[in-house]
Specification:
The structure is a homodimer of 239-residue chains. With 239 residues, chain A is α+β, with helices and mostly antiparallel strands. Helices cover 44% and strands 21% of the residues of chain A. Chain A is built from nine helices and ten strands. Chain A binds a DNA duplex (30 and 30 nucleotides) through helix 8.
Chain lengths: 239, 239
DNA sequence: CGGGGTTTTGACATGGGTCAAGGAACGTGG
DNA sequence: CCACGTTCCTTGACCCATGTCAAAACCCCG
């Protein structure tokens, strides 16, 4: 049931059967949510962490005046708030963008893992560290890339992240978001997101139709984004 | 010698004497560097992690065309690349902004800690997780805040982070960076950073002179930044 | 077939970028 | 202690990418 996650771990490191079992036993329950549901609000005190099994979810921060920044998208196999195990209170909210299924890991169970299974603990720690790496790349995206570059970067990153969980192929992948949401993620207005999307379409690079990204020219897209996937740590090495 | 760090840990959680000793023993050596030295380049393979004891250091990413994004400032007591323990290869460079002293923690020693000292392991994990939290706030800053807001946010954050290590008081703190570096951090041009600094000065909020930030009106600055320090997790609670 | 939420487009405004030059500060060698 | 070069800061004039406002057009779903 949480096999998406375990398989993703195995892309980067070995996971023993005992470790996989320990993870499976750590799940208290799963729950299904509609699109557009706020699962956690910034500042909530949490006693469990959520793993996304299916759907599309994002983390976000609100600012005065109704503005909202989407911080990161999460796809099947991603922990949404593993860091809540350490922080206890989240600095951001968590929101479904599409109907989603979530598995809950009580912090007691995670703590037991940290007491008894150091290698598995490092694997979990690793997940939070890759997350930070994704944030860093996004800081660069917002600080340095133009509107076209930001969208190109987004589409390249999501391609890689969906591919390792088997949800993307060279032709494209599902990404059920509105243009307004894409704008909130890439730090621009909906109007400009729309125009930028049109520019990418006119150049024959990508197209977004009915919640799906069609990759028309992946190498070209990578060039526009200056995309370098190393920050995602997708290769195997022992740790 | 690494007491800055241990004291900072103790702001948020208890640290036993054995844990403090284990950390002290984990230090292989310390080294001193001039300003403007690149300590690590993106992609380098690392076998130790660095803790900043004194000085000012930043992480950065380069893009084609010579543009550079500064990702985060680091001050005394901060690990510069604890995440390298898990990642092995860094996705970013590390650069001194001022003369700095660094303590080296071989990954072997850190691994031993994760095998034997689960609570201390969680404390280290926690550090990387706060780091991600700082990145998230910066994503919001670049995505949502105006030029004035970005600088105000920067000055508010650095005040809090320097205060817990005893390097800032209500009057201000040292921040030995050029305006060009501030521009690279806040995602604007040096010229605009200069003008924005002038705006903050004219409003009587902050002033930067000879590598020092003078806080003229901290509440006003916080208002302009919409600053909320919870993301820094500066309060004590057990974990 | 009607109506909400989207997407698209146009006309115009503006924050921040670019280019260029002068001035202040500072370290270094004489 | 001064002269000089270098780096950093400051300011002006102009420009462009993106924001704003507003209205159509589209499209899915009931």
């Amino acid at each position: 049931m949480i096999d998406v996650f375990i398989n993703k771990l195995r892309v980067r490191d070995d996971v023993s059967d005992e470790e996989a079992d320990a993870l499976r036993r750590a799940v208290a329950r799963t729950e299904r949510f509609d699109a557009d549901r706020t699962l956690v609000r910034a500042g909530d005190e949490l006693h469990e962490s959520m793993l996304l099994l299916d759907g599309l979810i994002c983390r976000f921060k609100d600012m005065r005046g109704g503005a909202r920044q989407l911080l990161e998208l999460n796809v099947a196999g991603d922990f949404l708030d593993l860091h809540a195990f350490l922080l206890k209170r989240l600095d951001h909210g968590v929101l479904t963008l599409a109907p989603s299924t979530v598995a809950y890991f009580p912090h007691d169970a995670l703590r037991r893992i940290t007491e008894e299974m150091p290698h598995l603990t490092r694997l979990l720690w690793f997940q939070t560290v890759v997350d930070a790496s994704i944030h860093r790349e996004w800081v660069t995206t917002l600080g340095l890339r133009s509107a076209v570059g930001r969208l190109a970067q987004l589409f390249c990153e999501m391609f890689e992240r969906l591919r390792i969980v088997g949800l993307a192929d060279e032709s494209g992948y599902p990404l059920p978001m509105t243009q307004a949401e894409i704008a909130e993620l890439t730090g621009m207005t909906p109007v400009h997101a729309n125009r930028t999307l049109k520019a990418l379409r006119d150049e024959g690079l990508v197209e977004m139709r009915r919640g799906r990204v069609e990759l028309l020219d992946l190498p070209g897209l990578r060039r526009v984004a200056e995309f370098d996937p190393t920050y995602l740590s997708l290769t195997k090495r022992d740790r």
